[in-house]
Amino acid sequence: MQTLFEKYRPSNLDGVLGQEKAISKIELLLSRGWGSRAWWISGASGTGKTTIARILAGYGADDIYVNEFDSADQLSVSEVDRIEQEMSYRGFGKGGKAYIINEAHGLRKAVIRRLLGLLERIPDHICIIFTTTKQGESKLFDDQIDASPLLSRCAKIELTNQGLAKVFAEHCRKIALSEKLDGKPIQSYIKLAQNCKNNCRQMLMAIDAGEMLS
Asked: 19-158 sits in which CATH class?
């Protein structure tokens, strides 16, 4: 059974809430082409990083050609070598291939060094997407990993965590109503958003557990 967060995850950029500035930048970049690009998406947990990454991947690649790593810890030098070999061949359908590396702040020095060369020559049918928290992004530098060359090769998209409480509260209440899990006024949903630090995934998990039933 799907969680509410997965069931109601946006399938297009229009469905992403509270990130108008970031979405405008993404749409501008997409108007110039999908492939030959690496993206670096940073933001707080539950604000839409992975959702946006999957939507981006779907612009040019069918699901079977979207490879997602739940954590950068899964990305070894040999895995990067494999990706480079795969990049030589187009996919069927839309023709593209996409690679999503979540929790990119876990990238190891050797992997970063290997990625630098790969990102210099991304074919026009390939899209590579990194996601991380802002805290995680800064941690790359705290650990004395020179991440500047890596970031300079990516289109940086920063998601905001400001002004989301009401937007997420209204969105989550609509879902709660449709799932018959609502029993409280909108103010309770705003308080839930504040308690969850504007983490929409955490809010929906709380609703799924019946916390908004009266």
From this structure: alpha beta
* Residue 142 pLDDT greater than 60, yes or no: no
Q: Where do we find the tokens 């609502």?
A: 182
CA distance 160 to 145: 25
Give the global pTM: 0.94
Per-residue confidence at 145, pLDDT binned at 50, 70, 90? Answer: low
pLDDT in tens, 36-55: 999 999 999 999 999 999 99
Among left, alpha and beta (phi > 0; psi -120 to 50; other), residue 102 is beta
Q: For residues 208 and 4, is the Cβ–Cβ distance under 8 A? A: yes
> If we measure between CA atoms, which residue out of 7, 85, 89, 86 comes closest to residue 51?
7
Structure tokens at 174: 């609509």
Nearest-CA neighbor of 34 among 59, 66, 53? 59
**Farthest CA pair distance, the chain:** 57
The amino acid at residue 151 is L
Please give the Cα distance from 3 to 28 (Å, whole number).
32
At residue 72 the predicted structure's pLDDT band, cuts being 50, 70 and 90, is: confident
- Answer yes or no: are the C-beta atoms of 204 and 174 closer than 8 Å: no
What residue type is assigned to position 152 of the chain?
Answer: S
Domains in the chain: boundaries: 19-158, 165-208
